[in-house]
């Protein structure tokens, strides 16, 4: 292939402020009142956010904090849905809440299209990705995913206790997305660092944050060059050659979308698989029922997604406004809690319970509106296959040490240490 000079100059040669935008004072430490000082980075939230969200829904359904330079937290389904659908008043130009406001000029494309894009650009950037993630396309990944799950369990050998988050859940989406993007499968452990750097390092000083984000982009750029030298049938080559409005994509679009697929594809499914196994380990009745009736797994998967929805996204308020009783200022953050929406009793019967044969389940775990998850078929396949294989091979398991279970901090929530006794 002829040299593609889009990728030869450093297209990321921008100043720190251009990348990060305006900064706000960093406020950390214990929360005084969740209605007026919430922080999704506090250990109390990552350990168990649901009682906090239930309490807020009752007494202050749109909570506020001065942290992160000002942010709002809606906990009712109807408010979360209204914001997700209202792209006129709420921007996606950054969907990870932090102490930095990305520059307004980033809209409507943002750093990682289409998730960071606003209309009208969003529609076209999203359309590029859809063919790779149809149910049919995803079905082709299923045999390899199933075989990989078996190989992970083979690797447990004679151990009595395994870490289901570390030894099992994390590897499944890492392998699947590495295959789809055409990255070396052995690079998986590096992906974990990229995910943690991006999603959990949001209170870090700017230099450190930039350096960490650069590591991911250096890796992705190296993959682009490898694909330019050795084109192959995968998503990376597809993005390099894709066109919008008669031109090949801007290099920052190519790499930004690769970053999105890597991050969105890994942490999310890893969290959902882990949370489902955590639930089954502590709920023998559900575990026994699914082990004897695997046909129920797809329905149970929907309920695990509803009850333990791993993904919370952010929006930025476009202009000052009075919104449903809240005095929102331009550039205030919204922490768009799909998990809280999924447990709103006004929307779901028995909202706080896990009902693995729930019949009607129109949950919001994959988001609502134009940004609804492109990878939902893939995620459902990964989750279903991961549970089917685990339950067939290890029908009986319990929490080895409930106190040793840890959960990730930040906007993607799932178990990161999950010791299970498997014999
Ligand atoms: C259980 C696993 C997953 C969950 C719960 C989940 C959840 C979500 C949510 C809530 C959104 C909406 C974002 C917003 O409103 O700002 C979203 C968007 C997206 N997700 Fe997922 N996701 C999962 C897995 C995946 C996977 C495996 C991929 C692909 C590799 C993926 C790719 C995307 C993309 C590309 C978008 C952006 C869509 C757009 O902006 O139009 N996700 N996801």
Helix content: 40-55%
Oligomer: single chain
The whole-number mean of residue pLDDT values reads 93
Provide the β-strand percentage band. 5-15%
- Using the coordinates above, name the CATH class: Mainly Alpha
Describe how the helices and strands are arranged.
Elements: H1 16-20, E1 22-23, H2 34-37, H3 43-47, H4 50-59, E2 62-65, E3 71-74, H5 77-85, E4 90-91, E5 100-101, H6 121-129, H7 135-139, H8 142-154, E6 161-163, H9 164-169, H10 171-181, H11 188-200, H12 206-229, H13 235-241, E7 243-244, E8 247-248, H14 251-282, H15 284-292, H16 297-307, E9 312-317, E10 321-323, E11 326-328, E12 333-337, H17 338-341, H18 376-393, E13 398-399, E14 406-407, E15 415-417, E16 419-421
Parallel strand pairs: 3-12
Antiparallel strand pairs: 1-5, 2-3, 4-9, 6-16, 7-8, 9-12, 10-11, 13-16, 14-15
Structural summary, described in words:
The chain is α+β, with helices and mostly antiparallel strands and 423 residues long. It contains 18 helices and 16 strands. The strands form six sheets. The protein has a five-stranded mixed sheet. The model has no long low-confidence stretch (mean pLDDT 93).
Short description:
With 423 residues, the chain is of the alpha+beta class. The chain has helices at residues 16-20, 34-37, 43-47, 50-59, 77-85, 121-129, 135-139, 142-154, 164-169, 171-181, 188-200, 206-229, 235-241, 251-282, 284-292, 297-307, 338-341, 376-393; strands at 22-23, 62-65, 71-74, 90-91, 100-101, 161-163, 243-244, 247-248, 312-317, 321-323, 326-328, 333-337, 398-399, 406-407, 415-417, 419-421.
